[in-house]
Write a structure and sequence with these properties.
heterodimer, A: 346 residues, alpha/beta, 2 domains, four-stranded mixed sheet, 34% helix, B: 426 residues, 23% helix, globular
């Protein structure tokens, strides 16, 4: 096995924080933890090259670092790229994650790193990388490197990687089906009994905490504002010209309401499989309240109603879809010079 | 309330001169059964096909799968509120043809090939190996309604045909000695001798108001659930014909078979009988139409469990997609706040196979979650020799070699607790 290894200035033996500004050095052979790597890989495995870099330099000059490492690796004939272990060293973890990610994506060379659970590199790179859980303390070095080696061997051999618990990596946040002995009913009853008895139990899924979205500033003067309606209730013109899917939609559309004082059910249909749409089909104003907004426009309560609305269907949609569509819609709204958006849902 | 299940194993179904159970072989008088089913004047014809495990056969779209059962005299009636007047189910002896099933195909001509792909009976191959239904002896019914019968009425006729056939078949066992018997109950919050055990309740959603039920849609003792609040039930009622799945098979992943053999209720009874817990009862609940409806339904369900059943633990299942998912979690949260420990069973919602898309709630106290998977399991199934289809376009689809998702094969992914597929987190 031919390995290329990345370490920071501390594990590279240069020095502690006072040497964090040191630029990238390319050394032949194993350095520091690389010797352990070589030994544990066995079978004549060798660390061809060790990259040593100061933590500050790595974060401040990240693009340059990646370019230099990739250029060197391209011709190296390496089978595996290893970075760290980084434990809770934040800048080290960020650099290791960025390098592993680039090496994997651009050179298709498998990569493995190790970090403690609180390392900021974990949140940034957990989904795309196998990050061995190193814990916080460098005293576990040989244990951590042993796990990195086992995982590295499997990655190079193209073997299927087991569960985080079995392999020792930090969960990537991905799910995969498995067939198990007990049916779901039996698992459910077993779990509640463990819970009510105060015994440890393992939930099959964890909730995700999302960053709170700060409340935007209030519209300074709504009587001068340009207002737009966005709905996820799936209202589309008859024939669904943009082909917006009724479930897990990947598309959204912009539809004109120019010169209209209300919406006629005859002109629209609902592409949404998750609610009883009969009332909206009969009167689409109950989802996109054009009638009321025109009245408010006339009375000067709002400045102006933008002459289009945006629509998609919000049903069983994964976040990777909705995040993208949300950004696209926000971009569009900004370009249109709209001051306020009313979002209606079902 | 006591329910005795008198089980008669069946290893073969065949057509014969009279309907009878001889050992483990069930003979069916085909013309007598057909005449019984065609008493329903909405039906123009009904096909009857015997299908065996391992047979190179595919059928669909599956409207329902029913275990043949018939009540002995002196107990509650068969499918009360549906086949006869309303009465409380779950009392007395029920004869069960174990290992047999009536599988009913939706034969409406308007059902598209795409819609039919949601529920297929697959009897051989890799996918079939993951469904409990492929191990059963099936009588497959294809009831075709007259052209002037409206869609909901055709579905009603389809439901009635399936239930009638199931009862008719099991009546052959009423004069036979069962191979095994099992008596369930009595249970309840006031049963003596259960002191010191955790008092566990089941809350099962039986319908979601995301869709308006048809006027003649039998779900709870024949009621279509309109206006219904959560109801306190004895679990025997669920096992003995009080609850039926919706006409809309896209919502639930539920079949009558797994109400009759309810995986959650069955496991609670097993542990109850082993003295591990005190199974105090079940609540049949509904998920809401809107936020006000949701609050009302969740609160009533939680209060029945806490104050009606005096439970200190509860397990919850859902029926349908996102709205039921959120309502179940909200009910669990209310219970946790009343110091009732909960575990919930969710279906697979993560289309991008990411943990962040898997749950529609983030309640720290709702932290015991069984996650039924299925979203990335698929099989390439071969063309098959024998097709039993609801209409010509479905027949064409079923005949082909094709890729089928786990959720396409009836019994693989199921919201009543029968699923063996779960999602592992990586």
């Amino acid at each position: 096995m031919k390995i290329v290894h990345y370490v920071n200035q501390f594990f590279g033996g240069i020095g502690a924080e006072e040497e964090a500004g040191r630029p990238l050095e390319i050394r032949e052979g194993a350095v520091g933890p690389g010797r352990l790597l070589e030994q544990l890989f066995g079978d004549g495995s060798q660390v061809l090259t060790t990259f040593v870099c100061g933590d500050n330099y790595a974060v401040e000059q990240q693009d340059q670092l990646i370019t230099d490492v990739l250029n060197h690796l391209r011709a190296s004939g390496a089978d595996l790229f290893v970075a760290g272990p980084c434990f809770e060293a934040g800048r080290y973890g960020m650099a290791a994650g960025a390098l592993c990610s680039a090496v994997q994506a651009e050179l298709h060379i498998p990569a493995v790193t190790a970090m403690g659970g609180e390392n900021p590199g974990v949140d940034l790179y957990r989904e795309e990388l196998f990050i061995v859980d190193s814990g916080a303390s460098a005293s576990a070095m040989s244990q951590v490197v042993t796990r990195m080696v086992a995982l590295g061997k499997k990655l190079v051999a193209g073997e299927e990687i087991g569960t985080p618990a079995d392999e020792g990596y930090i969960p990537r946040g991905l799910i995969r089906d498995a067939f198990v002995e007990q049916n779901a009913g039996q698992r459910l009853v077993a779990m509640v009994m463990d819970k009510v008895n105060g015994d440890p139990f393992e939930s099959e899924m964890m909730s995700t905490s999302f960053e709170p979205i700060p409340m935007p500033a209030a519209v300074a003067d709504i009587s001068k504002a340009r207002v737009m309606v966005i709905t996820d209730g799936g209202l589309v013109p008859s024939g669904n010209p943009d082909g917006i899917e009724g479930m897990a939609a990947t598309r959204w559309g912009t539809y004109s309401i120019k010169d209209k004082d209300g919406l006629d059910g005859k002109d629209y249909e609902i592409s949404h499989g998750g609610y009883d749409p009969r009332f909206v089909e009969a009167d689409p104003d109950r989802l996109v309240p054009l009638d009321a907004l025109r009245q408010m426009e006339k009375e000067g309560i709002i400045g102006e109603l933008h002459n289009e609305f945006i629509s998609t269907s919000g049903l069983a949609n994964p976040l990777s879809n909705t995040r993208r569509m949300g950004k696209e819609m926000a971009q569009r709204v900004k370009e249109l010079g709209v001051d306020a958006v009313i979002v209606t849902s079902t | 309330m006591r329910l005795t299940l008198a089980r008669h194993p069946v290893t073969e179904i065949k057509f014969g001169d009279e309907t009878s159970l001889d050992g483990t072989a069930l003979s069916i008088n085909e013309s007598e059964l057909r005449a019984l089913l065609l008493e329903d004047q909405r039906l123009e014809s009904v096909g009857l096909d015997v299908v065996r495990p391992g047979e190179n056969c595919r059928a669909g779209p599956v409207f329902d799968i029913i275990e043949p059962r018939a009540k002995a005299d002196g107990g509650s009636p068969d499918f009360p509120g549906v086949l006869g007047p309303s009465a409380i189910a779950g009392i007395g002896t029920t004869h069960v043809l174990e290992g047999a099933a009536v599988t009913v195909v939706d034969c409406r001509p308007t059902v598209t090939a795409r819609a039919a792909k949601r529920s297929i009976l697959e009897m051989s191959g890799e996918g079939a190996a993951r469904s409990p239904y492929s191990a059963l002896q099936h009588l497959v019914l294809t009831p075709r309604s007259r052209a002037d019968v409206p869609s909901h009425s055709a579905l009603n006729a389809t439901r009635m045909a399936g239930l009638k056939a199931a009862v008719y078949m099991a009546q052959a066992a009423r004069t036979r000695q069962p191979i095994t018997t099992e008596t369930l109950g009595p249970i309840g919050p006031t049963e003596p001798g259960r002191e010191g055990l955790h008092r566990v309740a089941y809350i099962g959603q039986i319908y979601s108001r995301q869709r308006s039920p048809e006027i003649d849609e039998h779900i709870f003792y024949g009621l279509n659930t309109t206006g219904m609040l959560p109801v306190l039930t004895n679990p025997n009622e669920w096992l003995d014909g009080a609850v039926l799945p919706s006409y809309d098979t896209s919502l639930g992943g539920a079949e009558t078979y797994f109400y009759q053999n309810h995986p959650v209720i069955t496991d609670l009874y097993r542990r109850h009988n082993e003295g591990e817990l005190n199974f105090v009862g079940a609540v049949a609940s509904i998920s809401g139409l809107d936020n006000e409806d949701r609050d009302r339904l969740c609160q009533v369900a939680a209060h029945l469990v806490k104050w009606g059943l005096n439970a200190d633990a509860a397990v919850l299942t859902k029926h349908g997609g996102g709205v039921p998912h959120a309502d179940m979690a909200q009910t669990a949260r209310l219970l946790e706040r009343m110091e009732v420990s909960t575990a919930v069973m969710v279906s697979d919602m993560s289309r991008d196979r990411r943990v962040e898309s898997a749950l529609l709630f983030n309640f720290p106290e709702v932290n015991a979650i069984v996650y039924c998977g299925g979203g990335d399991t698929k099989w390439t199934v071969p063309a098959v020799e024998r097709i039993i289809a609801g209409n010509p376009q479905v027949e064409e689809m079923l005949a082909q070699s094709q890729e089928l998702m786990a959720s396409s094969i009836a019994g693989v992914v199921n919201q009543q607790g029968a699923s063996h597929v779960r999602a592992m987190t990586y």
